[in-house]
Write a structure and sequence with these properties.
Length: 213
């Protein structure tokens, strides 16, 4: 079974670790699923999600201390060889809805990601955490965050409260749906080729314009 590597990035104290732990406990209640990495600022979890009769096995890397996304392999190795930021299959970018600086952090990370690797077929879900702490005065900022992510970046966006486990599953549902959509796109050409071959075989190997003399 393919294991999908997902990296979770966010500024300190945005609640990304709580988000991951809430999801892992929901996916496998009471079952420890954490393994510490070898000297790097990362925790790794191994949950799984069932969607459309397909099991998605994840390797979730909750990383900390990421000052910038590595520009190349040499820079990544010098930062920490085991993080593997540039080779992840998908990303969660987490920020605190009540802290504009944490949003600016993921904005900078996003720009560095786009400069570092081809992101055309790499799902990224942006997560606005601490929805329970949003006061009336913060609602305008929340709308601005949402508009930036959805309209300008054109990435999926979910607001949640990891502390109260509110919409945590929705975050990972969006992630799984994005990965499933990519899989369907990859399977489509193969399916069309197989169908064409089947039609050709049914016609005795003749194209539609051929006739038996």
């Amino acid at each position: 079974m393919e294991v999908i590597r997902v990296v979770v990035i966010g500024a300190p104290q945005v609640g990304k670790s709580t988000l991951v732990k809430q999801f892992v406990q929901s996916a496998a209640p009471g079952r420890p699923a954490c393994s510490l990495s070898d000297g790097c600022p990362r925790h790794t979890y191994f949950p799984a999600v069932l969607l459309n009769s397909r099991l998605f096995a994840f390797r979730l890397h909750d990383v900390s201390g990421v000052r910038r996304f590595p520009a190349g392999a040499d820079q990544e190795w010098s930062q920490c060889r085991a993080l593997g930021l540039r080779s992840a299959a998908a990303y969660l970018l987490v920020f605190d809805l009540t802290c504009a600086d944490s949003f600016r952090y993921i904005r900078a990370i996003r720009e560095q990601m786009l400069e570092s690797r081809d992101m055309q077929r790499v799902p990224v879900i942006v997560v606005g955490n601490k929805r329970d702490r949003v006061a009336a005065r913060d609602t305008r900022d929340c709308r601005d965050f949402s508009a930036t992510v959805r309209k300008q970046w054109k990435w999926p966006y979910v607001e949640c409260s990891a502390k109260f486990n509110y919409r945590v599953l929705q975050v990972f549902r969006e992630l799984t749906m994005a990965l499933d959509a990519l899989r369907q796109e990859e399977l489509a050409p193969a399916t069309e080729t197989s169908a064409a071959a089947a039609r050709s075989a049914a016609d005795g190997g003749l194209c539609g314009h051929c006739a038996i003399q």
